[in-house]
């Protein structure tokens, strides 16, 4: 790592320009043609393909790997995109180590799976680089569908509906489409402008209009959309951030990890992005790892993740935890925040309480430790804010704070489907949101064309 400037407080420009470029370079460099062929040759092309069973979008993995092996990367890309139009981003951000690659027969035989994620990237990058479009729009149906949210669920739904010949309008609150792919993923996983290039590739099928800066409940209502369109799809994601419930959390320097990552992803010059000298991250999921690693890469001297349970309970995969450790992040377990210690209104430390499991319940032990910190990130999960839904007209049933849907993605409100993180069972993965958007689009298509039976 290049030189650092270790002053206290949250300051910008801790590293040299070269160090930022190096630190935020591609985490997994792309395979070249030779490497891709060598890797593809390791696949056993299993007839029962456990990797395929493990993929939330059910990509025919042995088929696309065989296509790469036989020198047909564009054919491989089509096999991937047929099931997952976000195949390029998923190749970069999917936790393959707990999905397809974990299921790989070679992983069980020799502890070294076929690098399915990197092969998927090789194929999809080839197609996008050559501007190769595999899908054309069907004849216009005259049906209009509104989609709220231009994240993976919303755009996967939009693409599939456009393919079927429907006209789609996507409403999104942000100035750019892409949702978490654009605003929420660690910069070193999708460097450059990849997320936007992928969005443009998906939208280029035609028939999809994206309206930016449009917020449900402020600029339009759900009842209004349902009345004006033939169907509505909700891909709202999660907009609320859970509170620490710790004394003093309003101190300067206590930030939402999600907002910070979004700022970082939109920053043109990382040397202008302030970061603390001693950073504490509260949480145990992917967002906690992403913000902690990036704080280190921005030049923070000490970064500590504190999680209230044990390592086996962390949502972040073992691979992600190892990545954090390799980048110099300390992960401490069985600690929960008690109070933020502020000096002159700014965070100077955080008092953590040790926790323990007693009779299956997590309790605070009363014993505490103080960690010095000039920046504290909250990465303890996001919540769905349902207030925007039921301002007018039909109510949509919720369960455990998320939207309840049936097996096809239908909500309890006629003409309205939903998918992604806002639904019950949404799991914070681009790949799952894509599958739910795609499947809801097929259900909407069947219903609009009179094939889906009565919905009411």
Write up this protein.
The chain is of the alpha/beta class. It has 3 domains: 97 residues, Fumarate Reductase Iron-sulfur Protein, Chain B, domain 2, CATH 1.10.1060.10; 161 residues, 3-Layer(bba) Sandwich (FAD/NAD(P)-binding domain), CATH 3.50.50; 142 residues, FAD/NAD(P)-binding domain. Helices cover 34% and strands 19% of the residues. It is built from 17 helices and 17 strands. A hairpin with a 2-residue loop joins strand 15 and strand 16. It is globular, with a radius of gyration of 23 Å.
Q: Summarize the amount of helix as a percent range.
A: 25-40%
CATH homologous superfamily assignment of the largest domain:
FAD/NAD(P)-binding domain
Given helix and strand content, the structural type is: alpha/beta
Name of the level-1 CATH class of the largest domain: Alpha Beta
Q: Work out the helix count.
A: 17
Q: Major β-sheet, in short?
A: 5 strands, parallel
Distance between the termini: 60 Å
The total number of structural domains is 3
Layout: helices, strands, pairs:
Elements: H1 17-23, H2 33-40, H3 50-53, H4 61-69, H5 73-83, H6 87-93, H7 100-103, H8 105-110, H9 116-129, E1 144-148, H10 152-163, E2 167-172, H11 180-183, H12 194-203, E3 208-212, H13 222-228, E4 231-234, E5 240-241, E6 254-256, H14 257-266, E7 278-282, H15 286-297, E8 302-307, H16 318-326, E9 329-333, E10 335-343, E11 346-358, E12 361-372, E13 375-378, E14 382-383, E15 398-399, E16 402-403, E17 416-418, H17 430-448
Parallel strand pairs: 1-2, 1-4, 2-3, 4-17, 6-13, 7-8, 7-13, 8-9
Antiparallel strand pairs: 5-14, 10-11, 11-12, 15-16
């Amino acid at each position: 790592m290049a030189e650092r400037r270790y002053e206290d407080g949250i300051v910008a420009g801790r590293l040299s320009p070269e160090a930022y470029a190096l630190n935020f370079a591609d985490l997994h460099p792309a395979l070249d043609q030779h490497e891709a062929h060598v890797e593809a040759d390791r696949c056993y092309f299993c007839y029962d393909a456990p990797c395929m069973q493990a993929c939330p979008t059910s990509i025919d993995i042995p088929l696309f790997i065989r296509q790469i092996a036989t020198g047909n990367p564009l054919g491989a890309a089509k096999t991937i995109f047929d099931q997952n139009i976000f195949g390029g981003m998923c190749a970069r951000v999917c936790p393959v180590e707990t999905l397809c690659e974990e299921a790989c027969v070679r992983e069980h035989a020799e502890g070294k799976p076929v690098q399915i994620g990197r092969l998927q990237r090789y194929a999809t990058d080839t197609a996008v680089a050559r501007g190769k479009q595999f899908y054309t729009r069907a004849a216009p149906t005259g049906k209009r569908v509104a989609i709220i949210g231009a994240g993976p669920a919303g755009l996967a739904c939009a693409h599939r509906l456009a393919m079927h010949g429907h006209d789609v309008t996507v409403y999104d609150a942000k100035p750019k489409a892409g949702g978490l792919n654009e605003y929420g993923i660690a910069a070193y996983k999708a460097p450059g402008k990849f997320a936007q290039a992928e969005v443009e590739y998906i939208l280029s099928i035609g028939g999809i209009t994206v309206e930016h800066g449009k917020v449900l409940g402020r600029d339009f209502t759900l009842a209004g959309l349902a009345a004006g369109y033939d169907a509505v799809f909700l891909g709202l994601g999660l907009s609320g951030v859970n509170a620490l419930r710790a004394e003093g959390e309003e101190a300067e320097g206590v930030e939402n990890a999600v907002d910070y990552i979004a700022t970082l992803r939109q920053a043109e010059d990382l040397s202008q992005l302030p970061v603390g000298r001693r950073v504490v991250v509260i949480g145990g999921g992917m967002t906690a790892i992403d913000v902690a690693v990036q704080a280190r890469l921005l030049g923070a001297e000490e970064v500590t993740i504190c999680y209230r349970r044990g390592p086996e309970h962390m949502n972040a995969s073992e691979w992600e935890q190892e990545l954090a450790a390799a980048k110099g992040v300390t992960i401490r377990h069985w600690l929960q925040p008690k109070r933020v210690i502020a000096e002159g209104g700014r965070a100077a430390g955080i008092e953590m309480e040790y926790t323990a499991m007693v009779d299956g319940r997590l309790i605070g032990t009363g014993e505490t430790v103080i960690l010095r910190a000039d920046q504290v990130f909250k990465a303890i999960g996001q919540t769905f804010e349902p207030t925007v839904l039921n301002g007018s007209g039909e109510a949509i049933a919720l369960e455990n704070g998320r939207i309840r849907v049936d097996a096809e993605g239908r909500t309890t409100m006629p003409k309205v489907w939903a998918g992604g993180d806002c639904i019950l069972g949404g799991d914070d993965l681009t790949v799952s949101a894509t599958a739910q958007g795609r499947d809801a689009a097929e259900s909407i298509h069947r219903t609009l064309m009179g094939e889906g039976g009565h919905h009411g």
